[in-house]
Write a structure and sequence with these properties.
Strand content: 5-15%
Radius of gyration: 35 Å
Structural class: mainly alpha
Helix content: 55-70%
Strand order of the largest sheet: 12-11-13
Number of helices: 21
Largest sheet: 3 strands, antiparallel
Oligomer: single chain
Length: 679
């Protein structure tokens, strides 16, 4: 069954790649396409030096989005540069005899090969041999957009507010306002983007230094956890108890202070609902309720500490043991780089295949007619046979021009299915890369725990040995676990897609059902990630298949459920605290550096457009660096915990069955904890 599933996945992947590479053409994304379906700027073609797309009548394009989607109802040509002046075909034709330079300039925006200024203006405009006008433009997204600017709050093009449209009318620049507003926003964003790029170009060296500092701080934090884990945890716990205690005292003080004040003895029920919540703070009943709630929370925390003190000590001891294990196997700290490279390869595969699939449509040509009553307008056509049809006779001036990429074949109808299959394979590969990393790290740390004499009995290259075992013996189990998780994640993606499509629906039951399904599958994904993680640990320890390992890990954790809960929360708190300390500390240092507030480095700090660009990069990067290091630590603690539970159940501390746990854990357990059946 496992082999059949894996073969199916490989077959799906091969089919997606084959279909995408056979039918796809990324040039459709890289190069603009003219009205004849030819790419602008493509090498070894007549348009090699014509890299920009020019629109004959940009007034027909209602929105910039229409231009970008290549569906503007006007002739589109590839040109080497955009127009830099106002001109109309009528004026240029009238003066071509004594001003040939103007004709030669205007002619480069006409259809290729057209050089007949004697042809009547009406026929030229009907056949769209040349544009009726050209306006100053500049290239953006490899397309000619009007060169808009603002002068004293007035929208202008080349400092002019009016222009001739070449059809006997004088138009105002505001006629392009709808397109101009969108284009100017894009151009403003482009200006900001260029400044951000400049900031990165200037500060990349210092950003790398900041990330290196984050790496060193993360490493030091993990090493120091061996000595500070207990101190940090108990400081936090007693701090919480102290803060809650202060809250109880403050509530009592407010309750006593309001005694005798008119209106303070009213109840919440008496005054009803109030939008100004400060009204409730004038009631004694409010502070009494707060005080009771805080007292209950305080008592719960104290009781938990009393009854779970031993398990908390075990959790802290395992954290210290994890720090010690990483100290002996330092190479594990850099394994996340391998996982990052594998995931980057997966993302690249998915992106390339998705682009090829998205560009696998055939050119679709449609009839573009100047007459609004032409019944053939916007119908599909064949440019090779168009001139032999009656369309040109019934609709004079009509042309068969390129519209977009698509198709109606069986393959094109199922492109969405191929995209889903590609997404599924992507999720499967990413989950497999993560599973491989977890199993590799678990094997390395398990070899530490089960060593009789630490570190003498630890294998010479524990990480590389574990990686080799995972690749050679456990690939199928890891792939099967990743497959199950990928199926659930794909269902979640489909549910999100359906939710997005049905957002406008008024059916309350449909929205409620989708919400419930999304919640259920979110919980299922979290549960499967937890089971898979522990199953991979058991696979690394015993080498059994996925299902057996998942079952044994689940029941082992259920028999130690209290320890699991305590260890999980203690670990999460300390690692979250570590991430905040690393990201916050390095972020504060970066803030003072990039704002030139450190006198020693004031001259070294670069001059930036936006200092928040490298600052945010350093903060986010530091958090990710810390997360990479701490994910190894979390895997180490989880592995040692499962080994610890197995050690308790399989051994009794006798000479025949000695414990493999460290002396510190043995001391914490004491005689009462030596029974393997206790949780």
């Amino acid at each position: 069954y496992l082999v059949l599933n894996l073969n199916y996945i490989h077959l799906t992947k091969i089919l997606c790649i084959f279909a995408a590479w056979v039918h796809g053409d990324p040039r459709k994304v890289i190069y603009p396409t003219d009205s004849y379906g030819q790419f602008c700027g493509q090498k070894d073609t007549p348009n090699e030096n014509k890299t920009i797309l020019f629109y004959f009548n940009i007034l027909k394009c209602a929105s910039p989005i229409v231009l970008i989607n290549l569906q503007c109802p006007t002739t589109q040509l590839c040109v080497s540069k955009c127009p830099d002046r106002f001109a109309t075909y009528i004026d240029v034709q009238a003066s071509y005899r004594y001003k040939p330079d103007q004709w030669n300039y205007f002619r480069q925006f006409c259809k290729p090969g057209f050089n007949n200024p004697r042809k009547s203006v009406a026929q030229v405009l009907r056949d769209e041999d040349c544009p009726s006008m050209i306006i100053p433009s500049r290239p953006f997204l490899k397309r000619c957009f009007p060169d808009f600017s603002t002068k004293n709050g007035v929208l202008t093009v080349a400092n002019q507010t009016t222009f001739k449209d070449g059809r006997g009318k004088t138009r105002n620049v505001t006629d392009l306002r709808e397109a101009a507003n969108g284009i100017n926003n894009v151009l403003d964003a482009r200006s900001v983007g260029m400044k951000i790029f400049e900031d990165y170009a200037i500060s990349w060296y210092w950003i790398l230094i900041g990330l290196f500092i984050a790496m060193i701080v993360s490493l030091l934090f993990l090493v120091l956890l061996r000595f500070t884990a207990g101190v940090l945890f108990w400081i936090f716990i007693f701090g919480v108890i102290g803060i809650i205690g202060y809250g109880i005292w403050h509530c009592y003080w407010e309750y006593d202070h309001l005694k005798g004040i008119p209106g303070s003895d009213l109840t919440v029920y008496d005054i009803g609902f109030q939008t100004d919540f400060r009204v409730y703070l004038q009631l004694r009943q409010t502070w009494l309720a707060f005080m009771i709630i805080l007292c209950v929370v305080e008592i719960i925390i104290i009781l938990m500490l009393i009854f779970l003190r031993n398990r908390i000590r075990i959790a802290i001891a395992l954290l210290k043991e994890g720090s010690r294990a990483i100290g002996y196997i330092m190479s594990t700290l850099f394994y996340p780089i391998v996982t990052f490279i594998l995931i980057a390869i997966c993302i690249s595969y998915w992106a390339v295949t998705a682009v090829f699939l998205a560009t696998s449509g055939e050119p679709v040509y449609k009839v573009m007619a100047n007459q609004t009553l032409c019944k053939y307008a916007n119908l599909t056509c064949d440019p090779e046979t168009f001139n032999t049809t009656n369309v040109t006779k019934l609709c004079p001036g009509a042309q068969c021009t390129f519209a977009f990429y698509g198709g109606e074949s069986l393959y094109h109808k199922y492109i969405f299915i191929f995209q889903l299959a590609n997404a599924f394979v992507f999720l499967w590969l990413v989950n497999f890369a993560i599973a491989l990393g977890q199993c590799t790290l678990a094997g390395a740390f398990a070899s530490y725990y089960w060593a009789s004499r630490k570190p003498a009995d630890i294998p010479l290259w524990p990480l590389f040995s574990s990686f080799g075992r995972a690749i050679r013996y456990h690939t199928g189990s890891l792939a099967f676990g990743a497959l199950i998780l990928a199926i659930v994640q794909l269902i979640r993606v489909i549910l999100e897609y359906l939710d997005h499509k049905l957002k406008g629906t008024q059916n309350s039951f449909t929205r409620f059902l989708l919400c419930c399904l999304k919640c259920c599958f979110w919980c299922l994904e979290k549960f499967l990630k937890f089971i898979n993680r522990n199953a991979y640990i058991m696979i690394a320890i015993y080498g059994k298949n996925f299902c057996t390992s998942a079952k044994e890990a689940f029941f082992l954790l259920m028999r130690n459920v209290v320890r699991v809960a305590v260890l999980d929360k203690v670990t999460d708190f300390l690692l979250f605290l570590g991430k905040i300390l690393v990201a916050g500390g390095v972020g504060v240092l970066a803030f003072f550096f990039f704002t030139q507030r450190i006198p020693v480095f004031a001259q070294e700090a670069p001059t930036l457009n936006y200092y928040w660009v490298p600052l945010l990069t350093v903060i986010i990067g530091s958090y990710l660096v810390a997360h990479g290091f701490f994910s190894v630590y979390a895997m180490c603690v989880d592995t040692l915990f499962l080994c610890f539970c197995e050690d308790l159940e399989r051994n009794d501390g006798s000479t025949a069955k000695p414990y493999f746990m460290s002396a510190s854990l043995h001391r914490i357990l004491g005689k009462k904890e030596l029974s393997p059946k206790k949780a």
